[in-house]
Structure prediction request, 157 residues.
Amino acid sequence: MAGRFAFRFETLLRLRKQREDERKRVVAARLRRISELMERRNNLLSAIDGQTDSLRSALRGGAVDVDQVRWGRHWLTHLRRGVLDTDAELSGQRAMLAQERATLVEARKDTEVLARLRERRLEAWSAEAARREQIESDEMNTLRFAHASLTESEDRS
Prediction:
């Protein structure tokens, strides 16, 4: 069998795989950030519910402390602003995620093109090596037959 298979673009394929892996890490980091923001938003909403319940219970009880109500309303406003800020950041993160996913898809396509080319070249190389091996085998068999025929004819003479 002829020498071993060598793909000329192996280095480029490795670089494209590295680029694809880097894009995957970027997308994963963005998904983690979005998950953290969702958790923060849920915590803020829970805090809003808790603060609302405590304000209602304070208003239901007889005497109302004006400073406590003022502080409670201020805190609710602060929590709601936090939810709005988190929502805005979430939408920005999701937009960046869409862009990063698009670059990941592009990197995956680039890698896949070279991987398929490598696969086709390997198949062609294997077929060529098998063809050459068959030719060598046929030649050896022909030589054996010719040698056997010559030996037979010499033995008869």
About this structure: Residues 144 and 150 are 10 Å apart (CA to CA). Helices lie at 10-60, 66-156. The chain is about 90% helix and 0% strand. The chain has a mean pLDDT of 92.
